[in-house]
Amino acid sequence: MDKIYFSHIPVFYEEAVNALNVKSDGIYIDCTAGGGGHSASIADKLTSGRLISIDQDPDAIKVLNERFANRPNVTVVKSNFENLATIMKEQSIEKADGILVDLGVSSYQLDTDERGFSFHKDAPLDMRMSKEGMSAKDLVNSYDEESLQKIIYRYGEEKFASAIARNIVEKRKEKEIETTLELAEIIKQSYPASARRKSTGHPARKTFQALRIEVNGELDKLKNTIDTMFDSLNEKGRLSIITFHSLEDRIVKKSFNSYCTGCTCPPEFPVCVCGKTPKGKLCFKVKEPSKEELEKNSRSRSAKLRAIEKL
To answer: Is 307 helix (H, G, I), strand (E, B) or coil?
Structure first.
């Protein structure tokens, strides 16, 4: 098998790892290791500590196994972070000192034609990060018009979702939609001419994002697992999450705020009767890419970093 070059520029490369406040003897988990950029930064700070690097992409796993072959304190696990509790149990880990999650799609996945993530190159319509389960081709050829419209509008925040869904259903009556460029052209033709003239980006960008989120169940997995991540931390342990979509960021922000919420008794109560105390504190409000980072990596423009420490 040819060697895989998992090219990826980690966004917030230093900031996300620094937010973990890595201890040399601590236990850390990189939930979305990709090409191993953040993992390597964490591993470099460890002496007697341990790192678990998780990814669901089989291509990433090959790269991680090669990259950390001579690091006995790094364990590579092929799985999705939604299985975090099971992974920790299998690795005999009760609690971690830091957990990192980078929710971005890697440059390797975007730039490898046959993965079907990009609307710039003709390729099979796939978009599966794990290379398993329902593909984007399955989705666009089987979902009804209403379901497609809801997905494209909700996950892509696409105002022409109704026209796009309608045209997808019409076109697939003639033949199955099989490739990225076929779909991209349908989306483009669904845009009014005036909107195409005004648009600064490709009309397919939002719809492709929406389909990718649905195919991989990204928001549901985050929503269902973020409490597990926080609960899996030791006292003073930290959770560091990088998001690339407003809906992802909303989930993280809401969850982090709930962990920081204390007494909810009405202000007129003389003493607290609810007994609620904050479980965490924010390490900082929110970080966005610097001008230097944007110049190095244009794909970081929508990224946000949030981190919380368990009390």
So the answer is: strand
Contacts of 207 (CB under 8 A, 6+ apart): 152, 156, 158, 161, 164, 183, 187
CB 36 within 8 A of CB 102: no
Decide: 10 and 102 in contact? Cβ < 8 Å: yes
Split at pLDDT 50, 70, 90, the class of 192 is confident
Other CB atoms within 10 Å distance of the CB of residue 204: 25
What is the model's pTM? 0.84
Distance CA 27, CA 23 (A): 8
CA distance 249 to 252: 5
Helix (H) or strand (E) holding 304: strand 304-310
78 and 151 housed in the same domain: no
**Mean pLDDT of the chain, nearest integer:** 88
Answer yes or no: is 5 within a domain. no
Query: What is the reported pLDDT for 117?
Result: 63
Nearest Cα to Cα of residue 104 among 64, 62, 68, 60: 60
Range of the domain at 278: 13-102+218-310
State CA 112 to chain mean position distance.
18
- Residue 80's closest CA among 117, 42, 132, 32? 32
Half-sphere exposure of 48 (CA within 13 A, CB side): 1
